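discrete fold record:
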Amino acid sequence: MSVGLRPYLASDAKRCAAIFRAAISEIAIEDYSEEACEAWAARADDLKAFADRLGEALTLIGFTVGEPAGFASLKDGSEIDMLYVDPEYSRQGVATTLIEALERIAFSRGARILTVDASDTSKPLFERAGFRAERRNVVRIGKAWCGNTSMNKALGAKTSEH
């Protein structure tokens, strides 16, 4: 499947919030408790705050057949802040395309290391993309505790893993 990219627009906020909620409730639920997923998905309940978070970062929309299928945000030039794909488009290259684009953008803007706090759900994806685990974290979301892994990837370096 072909995945196109474009910059986030304020008019994308509602669709991004729907993707965010669906990815958590249908995919992350396999790795986290229902309570944790509900608290996590609730972060999109305040649509203005959610839209502001996307707008303050460099956010890309991944789309297929003209429809937004996922999004990813680059924060502070070297941190992947959010990466979510609609479950309907899961495992079809949307997340990989978004990660590769953010890597190129970060590198072109001077970053030499890209970081992410990967959920247990997304950790295997980031490992396949060449990220290395740095440390395990436990974070509080609402009243729930969730684990994630801080990961990083050196940018611009040639690897022999292909």
